[in-house]
Amino acid sequence: MNETRILSEELWREPHLRIALVTETYSPEINGVAMTLERMVGGLIARGHRVQLIRPRQGRTDDARHDDGFDEVLAHGWKVPRYEGLLFGLPARSLLSRSWSRQRPDLVHVATEGPLGWSAVSAAARLRIPVTSDFHTNFDHYSGHYGLGWLRQPVGAYLRRFHNRTARTFVPTKAMAHALQERGYRRLFVVARGVDTALFRPAARSIELRREWGVGDDDPVVLSVGRLAAEKNLWLTVRAFRAIAERRPTARMVFVGDGPLRAALAAQAPDAIFAGVRTGEELAAHYASADVFLFPSLTETFGNVTLEALASGLAVVAYDCAAAAELVRDGDNGLLADAGDETGFVMQAVRAAGDAQLRARLAGSARALACEQDWEAVNDRFAAELVTVWCEATGATPTTSPSAITSRDG
């Protein structure tokens, strides 16, 4: 919310909306969805919109924040079973209806699909407030990783119904839009993700950190960043590193993040470094001080860590899906394997770790690509489409003041 921006004269002419944004996760929680939403909220405020954020209370000492253009409403939440550290919001239709009847938002944006999100869609529909949604997470794909594969079809049906109740569903890639369209989703709109290239940069490389890891200048460091959870396919990361270590015994594996699989991964990779959760400059240094980034997940809708690794100048090895499918050109700015081809993934990881010249060439192209993924352009596109949805719902034009619509409608 501290994003600054010089607004163009044309942008100032756009209507400034009151936007209620509903989410089950937000900063200071650490995950890709929370980070993305914080960036987008900051972008909306920088463009003159007011944001009311509705989220679950994250702890007993958690207090609602109120800043210029930003207000929070804290709802009740519950821990996600078998997924420590994450919450889902409890149903809150009455709370939302009362709040929005007292101070009506121009538009409701629902970022997550839990009970709180469903309540928000229902309350907005009853009050005839236009509502949009985000598709951030393949929850139906997660079920198989937690012994609940039988839930995949009903969860998929719920998600489709949820999003089809909204005027737009925002997705991060064209491939995801195509896949969801084939599954019966309607009114999809692509808004990509950006990366902070001032934070994630090759210059953050730390000789001191590499010494802590016990590696020399020429020893390859293999990095994984993200939640240590079953849906991230981290067993393949361990398998790939073992193949690398057979050829390069001085290589080192570093995991950044935490989660329910930490103990099991440590048992399988006893020589790996588990750095825990890192943020800000510490996270940037961990990225830049590595050499190869492995990302074998098949459940991502995007995968922000892929873009962060590219910005940090790493040789990225990933499956040809999600962000990697849109951003990585195999052999040019990273290395790809066909989705699900574990042998191919391991071969690409071994190739990257064993060839310093290849890594250097990939790193330069990776950084150049990341510098094109500007958060400002992403936030412009997102904010403009919210205005379009409001205009469609109210019959307004992009230069109409929301207060004028409110007065006209009584």
Automatic annotation (TrEMBL):
<dbReference type="Pfam" id="PF13692">
    <property type="entry name" value="Glyco_trans_1_4"/>
</dbReference>
<dbReference type="GO" id="GO:0016787">
    <property type="term" value="F:hydrolase activity"/>
</dbReference>
<dbReference type="Pfam" id="PF13439">
    <property type="entry name" value="Glyco_transf_4"/>
</dbReference>
<keyword id="KW-0378">Hydrolase</keyword>
<dbReference type="InterPro" id="IPR028098">
    <property type="entry name" value="Glyco_trans_4-like_N"/>
</dbReference>
<dbReference type="GO" id="GO:0016757">
    <property type="term" value="F:glycosyltransferase activity"/>
</dbReference>
<dbReference type="InterPro" id="IPR050194">
    <property type="entry name" value="Glycosyltransferase_grp1"/>
</dbReference>
<feature type="domain" description="Glycosyltransferase subfamily 4-like N-terminal">
    <location>
        <begin position="30"/>
        <end position="198"/>
    </location>
</feature>
<protein>
    <submittedName>
        <fullName>Glycoside hydrolase</fullName>
    </submittedName>
</protein>
